[in-house]
Amino acid sequence: MTSQRSRTAGRPTLEQVAARAGVGRGTVSRVVNGSDQVSPHAREAVERAIAELGYVPNLAARALVTQRTDAVALVVSESEERVFGEPFFAGIVRGISSGLVNAQLQLWLAMAQSAAERERVEHHLTSQHVDGVMLLSLHDADPLPLLVEQRGLPLVLGGRPARLTRPGASAGWFVDVDNIGGAQRAVDHLHASGRRVVATIAGPQDMGAGLARLAGYREACRAHGLATDDGLVAYGDFSYEAGVAAMRQLLERRPDIDSVFVAADLMAAGALRTLREAGRRIPDDVAVVGFDDSGVARQTDPTLTTVRQPIEEMGREMARLLIARIAGEEPEESFTVLDTTVVVRESA
């Protein structure tokens, strides 16, 4: 037997769907574009005809009618190697994807670290291509937030920008974790276990997370009467290699350190390697606490005590806020800050 679909030449059209459903072309168009100005009976007939014919809407034509692309962008200001190699980014993408499922929005992912990548991204971030934008791993001098706002696109940031950590800065649309509180809890844990010379490997100081975690470390050290001099602070870019190098610096400057709070699990894994190479026992000689509670924390030797941030929940919240902005809604708060907790394992 030959099915109706196989007899239809080429791609099914709106008119063919209307004929099959026994309704007008306008009714089909309203169903396809999500209008509620259609009776339940007519909607059911149209949806049945669409399924039988295998009709796929012309997205370009639909966009002209709805002024929507049904796509959103996630732009990460990091290299492709880091985005696909580090657990944090994978968790964020999983969370965003799950948050967009019910909204039927397609996710467009791009990296924007090099000048060429940034130029391509800038050409794509228009209302003709996407309905909204999420930006992640922003550095202080990144021009993308201002560009997106100037183009009138709904925008949500992953992480509090560095400028918003300064006194008097106004809040924006963002999702973050309690970085200051998490760092304080890490130092509290080290102090409670008898550590008195607590060093830190801080993140980049042109990023909100890097600034906040260092501030939390310093506040907790002051509260416990611990030293926070420059010799106890080294810096890294959240990578494994940076953790290796920063731990070497700390051991050279202050061989008497008995603990270290590290602003990211990958850097903490690098620090553990350097400590082992230096003959330091962990945690007997030096205790180590990381930040993230990524899969890396369970794979290190010894396993890593760390501050847990709910990465996938952060991605889902980013998607929720962006959907609200696209719909023109005004939530009670334009930002979300998620709690952090210390997960105790062998390294501290």
What is the assigned CATH homologous superfamily of the largest domain?
Response regulator
- Biggest sheet overview: 6 strands, parallel
Number of strands: 12
> What is the oligomeric state here?
single chain
Q: Based on CA inertia axes, which overall geometry fits?
A: elongated
Count of separate structural domains? 3
Structural class: alpha/beta
Which regions are unreliable across 5 or more consecutive residues at pLDDT < 50? Answer: 1-8, 165-170
Radius of gyration: 26 Å
Q: Helical percent range?
A: 40-55%
As laid out across the biggest beta sheet, the strand order is: 2-1-3-4-5-11
Class of the largest domain in CATH?
A: Alpha Beta
Task: Give me the CATH architecture of the largest domain, please.
Answer: 3-Layer(aba) Sandwich
**What is the overall pLDDT average?**
86
Organism: Phytoactinopolyspora mesophila
Keywords: DNA-binding, Transcription, Transcription regulation
Pfam families: LacI, Peripla_BP_3
Domain HTH lacI-type: 12-66
